[in-house]
Structures
1.
Amino acid sequence: MANPRLVDSWPRHLEVVTADAAIWCASCAERRGWDKDGAVDTEGNEVEWVFGGMEGNTPTHCEGCGTFLPVPLTRAGEAYVTEALNEFLEDGYGIRKILIEWAEEFYYLPAAEKFLKAVKA
Ligand SMILES: [Zn+2]
C-alpha cells in the first residue's frame, strides 16, 4: 500500500486557514469573516487560506470547532500518532472517537491497522 505522505496526499477538497497562531476549518474561518480579501486575524496578521503543502507534527484539529482536518503528517507526526494509538491499546489512555479518526486517516501506519482491528473487534 502506498504511503500517502509520499504521493500528493492533500485531499483536493481540503482547505485550512491559518490565523491567530492556529489552524481553522473553512466554516469557522467564514463565520469569523476571514474569507474576505485582506482579512486579518485578531493579532493583525494576514489570514492565510492553505490549499496544500502543509504537514503536521501532530494530527490537525480546527481551533474553533475541533473538527479533525486530514492534514498529512511529518515523520514526527507519524511517531506521535503511533505512540498515541499504542498507548490506548496498552493503557486505555486517550479519546477513542478521536483516535479512530486518526487511525482511519493514517491507515498506512502499522499501528493504525493494529489499533483499528483491536477497537473494532
Ligand atoms: Zn471549525
2.
Amino acid sequence: MCKGIICGLTAKRTVLRIVLVFGLLIPILVMSARYFEPQHGAGIGSLETARGQSSFSAHTVLPSTTRHKPGCAPAPLELFSNPDTSFRENLGLFVEEKVCRTGIKAKIVEIGVWRGDFAEILLQRYHQSIGEYVMIEPAEKLTGSRDPELNRRLKDFPNKFPNTNFTLIDEISTEAVKRFPDEYFDWVYCDGLHTYKGVQDDVSSFWSKVKVGGLFSGHDFSMSRAKARSDPWNTIAPWSGVRGGTEKAGFPGSYKAVVQHARKQGIQVFYTLEGRYGQGMWQLSDTGGYFRNNPSWFMFKHSDNYTSPIPKHNYIYKWDDSRVFRKFVFGTT
Ligand SMILES: C[S@@+](CC[C@H](N)C(=O)[O-])C[C@H]1O[C@@H](n2cnc3c(N)ncnc32)[C@H](O)[C@@H]1O
C-alpha cells in the first residue's frame, strides 16, 4: 500500500529498476553469451557442445574410475582451448595420466600412418608410457608401395624405442579392425580415409575397441567459413584456417561422421585448434619443425552406467556426395 508522493517515488523507483534490468543487464548478458559462444577461429572453440562454459575439466567427462589419483599429473582439458597449447601431440597427456594411474602401459592404434610423422612425435614424447603402437597403413597393398620414410622408421623405431611393441598392418582399417578384441586400445587415432563413409566406418568399427576411460580421436575436423555457412550442420565446426593466402576447404564428411557418432553416444566432442595461424603454423609446436595443418577431434569413452548430460540423438540424414553441403537433414529417430 502507498499514498501520495511516497507512492509516486516508489513507482518511479520501480520503473527505474525495470529500465535498468531491461536496458542494461539484459544486453550485458546477451553480449557475454555471444562472447562464450564458439566463434570460427576463436580460441575458445574446443568446447564444441558446451556453449556458455568457459572452464571445463577432463574429469567432467571421465568416469569416476578413471579420475586422477595423487601422484599422477592430471591432463588439463583447458590446454585445448588455449591456441598456444591446443595441438594433437598434447592428447598424449591423457594417455600418460592413465598409464600413471593404472600402472599399465598404453596400447595405441593410428589408422592411416603415411610417413609416420605423427607416430614419431608421439613416440618421442610418450614412449615410456606406450606398450604397443599399432600402425594401420594399407599403402603398399593398395598402391604397391609405401612411403620410404615410413620404411625407414619401421626399421628405426624398435631400436629407438625398445620397450614398445610395434605392428604394421598393411590392410584397410575395416579389415584391420577385425584383428582386435573389444576394449583393446587406450587410444585410437583415426587419420585414414577422409570421406564421410571412410570416417563413419572407422568411428563405428573402432569405437568398441576403445577401453572405458580411453581416448578416441582423429585428424581433420574443420571447415572453411564459406562452407560452414552453407550448411547448418557445419556452423560450429572449427575453422580450417588459411594456407598460401587462401582459406582451406576443410572436411565436411569427417566433421559430420564424428559429430553424428558423438551425438549417438551422447558424448562431448572436443577439438584442437591447429591450422588457422598462417605462417605461424610452423612455430606452434614444442616438438619443433612439424607442420600442423588441421584440428583433431577427441572424446572419451565412458562406461555404460555413466549418465551423460548430453542427450543421445540418432540423426536421420541423406548423403549425396554430389551435393555434400545441402543434403544433410536434421531430425531424430
Ligand atoms: C593423412 S595420411 C596420415 C598421416 C599420419 N596420420 C600423420 O599424421 O602423420 C592418411 C593415410 O591414410 C591411409 N589410408 C587411406 N585409406 C585408408 C584406409 N581405408 N584404412 C587405413 N588407412 C588408409 C593413406 O594411405 C595415407 O597414408
3.
Amino acid sequence: MSSLLHQRTSSQNPFPNSFPFSPRSSSISQRPISIFSPIVLLVLLSLVVVFGVFSPWAGMPQGIFSATDPAISKWRHYTLEQALPFVAKNGTVIVCIVSQPYLPFLNNWLISITRQKHQDKVLVIAEDYASLYKVNERWPGHAVLIPPVLDAEAAHKFGSMGFFNFTARRPRHLLQILELGYSVMYNDVDMVWLGDPFPYLEGNHDVYFTDDMTTIKPLNHSHDLPPPGKKGRPYICSCMIFLRPTDGAKLVLKKWIEELQIQPWSKTKKSNDQPAFNWALMKTAKEVDLYLLPQFAFPTGGLYFKNKTWVKETKGKHVIIHNNYIIGFEKKTKRFRDYGLWLVDDHALESPLGRL
Ligand SMILES: *[C@@H]1O[C@H](CO)[C@@H](O)[C@H](O)[C@H]1NC(C)=O
Ligand SMILES: *[C@@H]1O[C@H](CO)[C@@H](O)[C@H](O)[C@H]1NC(C)=O
Ligand SMILES: *[C@@H]1O[C@H](CO)[C@@H](O)[C@H](O)[C@H]1NC(C)=O
Ligand SMILES: *[C@@H]1O[C@H](CO)[C@@H](O)[C@H](O)[C@H]1NC(C)=O
C-alpha cells in the first residue's frame, strides 16, 4: 500500500513539502505505529478528498481508500436527510458546526452534554472532511457534512472573511433542519452545560435565545426581545438558539440570511453573523413568538467570567456557560481550565468520542 501511495502522490502530490511518506516509505514497515499518527492520518484523509474529487477525471482505477475503507466513502455521502431521523429524539436535535481546529472544544462540550444525558441527539455539522470522518469513526452517524466545503485555514480566524463565511452558513443549515420538520437547538462549541437547558424552553414559542449584554437583569426579567442598544439593535447571542419547525422560526432564519446578504463582510467592519441575527429578530418581532431565556441560567461570558459577586449571588442557577468576550483558542482553553470547565484533560472518556 505504501508503494501505491508513493506512485500516486509522486504524480499528484498535493503536499510537495510536507508529505511524510515519500522520503521514508521504506521505513514504514518497521514502524507501523507511525501510520496512525495524527499528521499522517490527516494527510491520508486529505488524499481521500483529493482523489475522491479527481479520480473520475483522472481515469484512475477504483480509489484505494474507497475500496479498502467503505466506511469513509459511506460518510462522504451521508446527508442531513439521513442523519436527522437517526439522531433526533422526539423530533429534536442538538447541533453544532465545527471545523477541525475546534475538535477539542467539541469534545469538551460533548462531555458536558453527556453529563446531562442529552448526547444521543447531538448532530455535528462538520465543515471539513477530517472532522466528518473523525467524529463518525468514533461515533457513527453523528456527523454530517453539508457541501460545499470551505477553506478551513481561513475559517477559524475571528473577524476574517473566512470566519464570516463559516458563520454565514449557520442560518442556512438551521433552516434546512426546520424545513425537514425538526426542532433544533444550536450551540457554539465554546460552551459548557452545567445543567439541563430543556426545562427552560417553556411554552410553545418559535425561537428561544440568550442576551449577550453584560448588564445585570433582575431574576424575573421579561422574556421579550430586549430593546435596541446603541447600535440600533439588541445584542442577542447567535451562540445558543432553540427553534421549533414553525413558520415564525423559519421567517427569522430567512430574514437572517437576507440580512447577511444586505450587509456582507467588509475589511473595515470585520463582522460576524450576530448583528444580522439581531436585525432579523427586530424586524420579525411583531410576527414571530420570541422568547428570551433567563440571564441567571444562560449568562454571557462577559458576565460569568468577569463578575464574581454576580456568580456567587446566582450560584446553582447556571445552566450553560459561554466562553466568549475573549478571543483565541489558547485564551479560551486557559480560561476554561482556570474555571474548572476544561473537561477534556481528565474526563475525555466520558465523551462519546473518547480521547481525541
Ligand atoms: C416531545 O415533544 C413534544 C412536543 O415538542 C413535547 O411536548 C414533549 O414534552 C416531548 N416529550 C419528551 C419526552 O421530551
Ligand atoms: C467567502 O465567500 C465569498 C463569497 O461567497 C468568496 O468570494 C470568498 O472567496 C470566500 N472567502 C473565504 C476565505 O472563504
Ligand atoms: C419583578 O419583581 C419586581 C419586585 O418583586 C416587580 O416589581 C416587577 O414588576 C417584576 N418584573 C417582572 C417583569 O415581572
Ligand atoms: C457585579 O455584580 C453585582 C451583583 O449582582 C452588581 O451589584 C455589580 O454592579 C456588578 N458589577 C459590574 C461591574 O457590573
